[in-house]
Amino acid sequence: MAKGEETRKFIIEKAAPIFNTKGIAATSMSDIMEATKLSKGSMYVHFENKEVLACAAVEHNMNMLAERLQKTLSRYKTSKEQLFAYTDFFSDPNHPPVVGGCPLLNFGTEADDTNPVVKEKVNRAIQQSQKLLSGIIEKGISNKEFKADWNAADFATVLFAMLEGGHLMARMSGDNDRMEVIVSNLKKMIEENSV
Predict the structure, then answer these.
(1) Region of residue 144 (left: phi > 0; alpha: psi -120 to 50; beta: else)
(2) Which of 45, 95, 106, 179 is least surrounded by CB atoms within 10 angstroms?
(3) Along the chain (195 residues), what's the average pLDDT of each consecutive run of 10 residues?
(4) pTM summary value
(5) Which fold would CATH assign to domain 55-192?
């Protein structure tokens, strides 16, 4: 990797948790300069402005989340185990797999009215998550783990929305009580659709 590319990667890795924790609007280039110990001139050699860096940081956070999730899911063979693992992966929002919490929720909430580029990145990631979940369920139906009439797309939407809503509730309250209720009910729904 060339020196310039290494520096660019270093800046993104340092900036990503700051953007995910503080938000795009509240994060300043000074925050990034402090974290990287680089000068403003060095920053602008690699990123023409904060928005370009923010988009790279959003992408980095979402990729890191996806990679960690895939690594977790790859440990399980059956579709039922994978759905349980997916649910467990997101079950403790106050100790999230990515510093700052769920980047889809964080950046999606901030960008819905203010940043169409980030909004589209988050929307695409949501669609990919639902496609992943639907695929797990469809595979489970094919393997006779789940009932043949289980609507994979509908449950993928419900599971995703309940976990994201639970994240918001847990982060606001600082405890996991309601998230535990959500996880328990999701697992019950999965059990009810198991053969």
Answers:
(1) left
(2) 95
(3) 88 97 94 94 91 95 96 98 97 92 92 89 95 98 98 98 95 93 98 97
(4) 0.91
(5) Tetracycline Repressor; domain 2 (1.10.357)
